[in-house]
Amino acid sequence: MKPLSELLAAGEELTRIRRDIHRHPELCFEEQRTSDLIARQLESWGIPVVRGLGKTGVVGVIKGGESNRAIGLRADIDALPMTEHNQFAHASVHTGKMHACGHDGHTAMLLAAAQHLAAHREFDGTVYLIFQPAEEGGGGAREMIKDGLWERCPMDAVFGIHNWPGMPAGAFALASGPVFASSNEFKIVLKGKGAHGAMPHLGLDPVPAACQLVQAFQTIINRNKRPIDTGVISVTMIHAGEATNVIPESVTLEGTVRTFSVEVLDLIERRMRELSLNLAAGFELQCDFQFRRNYPPTVNHERETEFVRRALTAMGAEVQRFEPTMGAEDFSYYLLDKPGCYFLIGNGEGQHREGGHGLGPCTLHNPSYDFNDQLIPVGGSMWVQLVQNWFQEQQA
C-alpha cells in the first residue's frame, strides 16, 4: 500500500519521536515521561486529551461533524524489564528497561494518524486515540476501563495493532475468533518432612510426588479436554533442596497455562487443583495450590474483522491470515466490552536495524530487537483509512 504523502513528509520527525521514546523506556504504570510527550504532541496539533485513566494513560479526542458515532484506536506505550544489547544512538539509556516489543513504534504510528486526522477531519463522529500503559503484565487496558474509559470516551468499536517480526514489512495479518490466548500462572507447594538422604523412611519426600504431578498435568491436555480444544500447561520452575544428602521439606512448582476459551481454562484449573490435592494426600503431603488468572483470551469479532479486511484490501495492502498464537495480549479486555479487531503489521526480518544492533535476532522480547521505522507512515496511513472507511460504512 502507498502511504499518505503528508505522512511520508513527516516521517523524519515521527521517527525522531519514536526513537526518543525508545531511548527513554518506562515500565508499566511508570510511563510519566512518555505520557507527557504524547499529550504535548497531541495538544500541539489541536487535539484535546483525557488523562488519569489507568494512572498514566492518555486519550486524544478528535471530533469531526455532528454524529455521535465514535471509534477507538489503541497503542500500548510501556517497555519491558530487560537490558538492551543494541548500541546504536537511540538505544535505551536505562539499564534493565527496553522497548523490545515495539510499543514505541505502535505509539508513533498512532501519532502519525493523529496528526493527519486533526488536520483533515473528513469524517462524521469522534475518534478516540487510546495510548495505553502497562500492557506487559500490568493489565493497563483493564485499569483504564476501571477508571472510566467507556464512560468518559464512549465508543462503538475499538481496534488495535501489533508489529510482527518475520512477516514482510508493511504486510498485514488478521483473523476472526481467538487470536491470542489467556495468560495464567500457578504456584504449587508440596510440603513433606525433611530427612537424611540415606534414611528416606524417616521423612516424607515431596520430590517423587512433584515428578508425578508434572507428568499427571499432561493427562489433562491429552485425556480431559477435547482434542479439538487448545490448551497448554507448562511447568517452568521447580525448586527443591539445598544439599545432595538431604531430602527437602518442600518442593515448589510454578508455570503458566494458556487457552483460547474460558471453558477450557475452567476445566484445566479444576483438574490441576484436584490432581495436586489428591496426589499430595496419596503421598501424605500437604499442598498449597495457587492459580492466578491474568489476561483473558483475545477474541476478535467477526464483523469488525471483515471490515478491517475490506479496508486493507481496498488500500492495496497485502493481507495474510493471522495464525493464532498462545501469547497473550491485554487488548482482550476491550473486546470483552466492545466489538473490535486486533491485527498485525509485518516488521520484516530485521535488515532495517542500523549498525550497532545486537547480534541476536530481531524478534519480540529479544535484547537485539528494534522497530522498523518504515512502518510509521504505513501504519499511520492505515489508521486514517480505517477511520474514514468505518464512518462511511456506519453512515451507509
TrEMBL record:
EC number: 3.5.1.32
Highest taxon of source: Bacteria
Entries under Gene3D superfamilies matching the protein: 3.30.70.360, Zn peptidases
Cofactor: binding comment: The Mn(2+) ion enhances activity.
Domain Peptidase M20 dimerisation: 185-275
InterPro entries, sorted: Amidohydrolase, Bact_exopeptidase_dim_dom, Peptidase_M20, Peptidase_M20_dimer
Names of required cofactors: Mn(2+)
Gene Ontology molecular function, alphabetical: hippurate hydrolase activity; metal ion binding; N-acetyldiaminopimelate deacetylase activity
This protein's UniProt keywords: Hydrolase, Manganese, Metal-binding
First and last residue of the signal peptide: none
PANTHER family named in the record: METALLOPEPTIDASE, PUTATIVE (AFU_ORTHOLOGUE AFUA_6G09600)-RELATED, PEPTIDASE M20 FAMILY MEMBER
Entry protein name: Hippurate hydrolase
